[in-house]
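Subject: for your reference before the review

Hello V.,

The reviewers asked for a structural picture of the protein, and I figured it would be easier to keep everything in one thread rather than splitting it across files. Below is the amino acid sequence we used in the manuscript, unchanged from the supplementary table.
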Amino acid sequence: MKTILLTNHYTGLPRQIVSQCVPEGFQLVMLDEVTQEDLIRKIPDADYLLCSGRIRIGKEELDAANRLSMIQRTGVGLDSLDLELMQERNIPLYVNQGVNADSVAEHTILLMLGCLRRLPVIQRNLQNGIWKKQEQGIQTYELKDKRIGLVGMGNISRRAAKILNAFGAKIRYYDVRRLSPDEEAELALQYCSLPELFADSDILSLHCPLNEQTRHIVNAETIGMMRDGAVIVNTARGGLIDTRALCDALRSGKIAFAGLDVYETEPLNDPELRALDQVILTPHISGVTYDSFARMMRMAMQNIQLYDRGDLAAISHCLYTM
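And here is what came back from the structure prediction:
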């Protein structure tokens, strides 16, 4: 029987969902503790690696993998994987391209609306018995006609753009690869340079990968280029934002509100950020709903089963290395 090693530890409903997705003829092994040490202990017996969460897969882990045939990512994030080494060793890596794009896009819009409506502040005031309808209401804003700047134009931001169009927002974007005129017309997008996007957005929303070029793309200098009272939303990777610079901008009022689902260090343990009133914080949950979790596990297990059969042509998801 082939072994699938899940690089995470689930209990309760998540564990039940994953267990129900395991194909016949395979056994699923989870980590007892989500540590490099436990992964290295278990990986020698793994035929397939199902990568979930942020645990690192590098040289030490791959050196211990005696039977590994293929690596399957539950989502699309790759910054915890040593892609060059996998390619050197001819270890195939598959991802579930777009599997949670709807979930993340919806959460992105949720954060935008929550920031514009100052939802945490309003709720806390009401819980404390403060009922100031007009005084609080006029400090909030509609999404309609707001200038939205999308940094990166992949599956998630394309879905977000469709939702934003329904709200009547004005959408501009930057990506290293510009879309075709037909694609821009279909999504009602306007392309602009990155400095223009920073300078002219009421809401800046991050949807790009984290690499050496994008690390701290939001920093003291680029925040200084932004409109006073702008909003920043990040559902991509925490390292895209210099947290200290963002905290300074929130305290000064340069940035009116921020909606964050990802952080430079996770789990979040930043007293300064957590103490700020004008920020919405969620625990890297934008891509995890019941629907998306069940779908990503089902698709990941199906990929492993198809690969094991040798039916590579039937695997419809993206292959990164081979």
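For the response letter, the relevant points are probably these. The longest helix spans residues 290-309. The CA atoms of residues 79 and 112 lie 26 Å apart.

Happy to draft the paragraph if you're swamped.

O.
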